[in-house]
Amino acid sequence: MYYHLKAESVLIEGKARGAIYDFSSGRVYSINRGAVELLKACESSALEEIMDVNSVDGKRYLSFLDKLTTKGLGAIYNELPAGKRTCPIQPYQPTLEYIWLELTSTCNNRCLHCYSASSPHTAAGCMPHTRWLELITEARLAGAYGIQLIGGEPLLYPRWRELIIKAREENYELVEIFTNATLVDDDCIDFFKQHSVSIATTIYADNSAVHDRVTQHPGSFDKTMSAIQKILAKGLPLRIASIIMKANEQEAENIVKLLTDLGVEPVPPDVIRPTGRGDNLELLPQAYSKPAIKPPFFTDPETFGKAQHFHSCLAGRLAITSTGDVIPCIFARDQVCGNILNTSLAAILAGQPLTTCWQTTKDCISKCQDCEYRFACADCRPLAQGQDPKKSWQAAPADCSYNPYTGNWEDR
Ligand SMILES: C[S@@+](CC[C@H](N)C(=O)[O-])C[C@H]1O[C@@H](n2cnc3c(N)ncnc32)[C@H](O)[C@@H]1O
Ligand code: SF4
Ligand code: SF4
């Protein structure tokens, strides 16, 4: 008699424990070291060779295997299954999916936390307009289907409309503009509607006192809220982001309520990334944080296949700054993978720096590389890096208390 996990279940070892990833239910089951060793022994030997099935221990092992069978994770076989199991894991082919274009570093706000250190006095950048236009075509040819115009404040880039028209000509599926919305007028809204542009904006509170303290721009809350009302009245797709720092951490619930009242999807506020002007301990919230990393973890063949060789969030995306630097994400300011003013996008996509960034799997991350949840657990690299005292790109996320060397969650 042989015992085998089903083709839809995969055993992943950690240093102290293991996990069974079940693609049928999407669940990830934690198992102890003894169970890991038993399942590994079962891969090549009959149950009778591994244990005395009539002994007390043998009955305990069989009862454990019975439980796995009941959950649909494995089964008893009369002989060793021949050949390789056909597992449903889908290999991920890295191609460009999404690009951010930071049109300008100038902004009419001067937010306390701004990762691009934008302000009315920050230099706009040096990308020729023709290069932005070319890039929109190059990125589409390379496979990108989503594009976001961002900044700084993208509406301060004088020819932003031409870039939207170009993106539409190139048939991007998603064209989004990320704006503080203080400059959005009726004319802009008509243009967005005419060209099917999605809009993203940001609020930091449900009142002007706190919002304007974050933006350092008196009157900005009223302007942003007025634009939000007009955009919603015209039925345009709008998402509203919010970032929490010390100055507005009492506002998290008020923001969610405001979004609900507006009829906009109430996404939980995100936290500041310690980068750019945000790299300042004084700005960090005292109590508010992203939900800690902890079970239950979930899996599916696609995300598992991607996580084995690529970072779940970074792979497939890149941002281009107003000076032409290519970075893997708007928050990852120091991971420069080339400059688009002297290199083609195709060469940057094929180059080692970007490939290495995209391939930042959990196997590259200290602690995580020894954890059995590493192919089910997602993280934000720039957040982990920013929270690390040494600012290491390979730092483990600060918001995980799991110790894969003992198998214990240390905050429990
Ligand atoms: C840089 S802004 C550019 C678009 C536009 N000016 C705006 O503020 O909506 C894009 C988003 O990044 C957020 N952001 C800026 N600095 C950040 C940081 N250090 N950590 C997390 N989010 C940040 C802003 O709050 C905003 O939601
Ligand atoms: S977060 Fe946006 S609005 Fe604030 S300073 Fe930066 S670019 Fe400007
Ligand atoms: S953050 Fe790292 S150590 Fe924590 S659960 Fe995820 S993979 Fe494991």
TrEMBL record:
Keyword Kinase: no
CDD domains: Radical_SAM, SPASM
Keywords on record: Iron, Iron-sulfur, Metal-binding, S-adenosyl-L-methionine
Molecular functions (GO terms): catalytic activity; iron-sulfur cluster binding; metal ion binding
Gene3D superfamilies the record matches: Aldolase class I
Domain Radical SAM core: 93-311
Keyword Iron listed: yes
Xref: Pfam families: Radical_SAM, SPASM
The protein's name in its UniProt record: Putative Fe-S oxidoreductase
Source organism per UniProt: uncultured Sporomusa sp
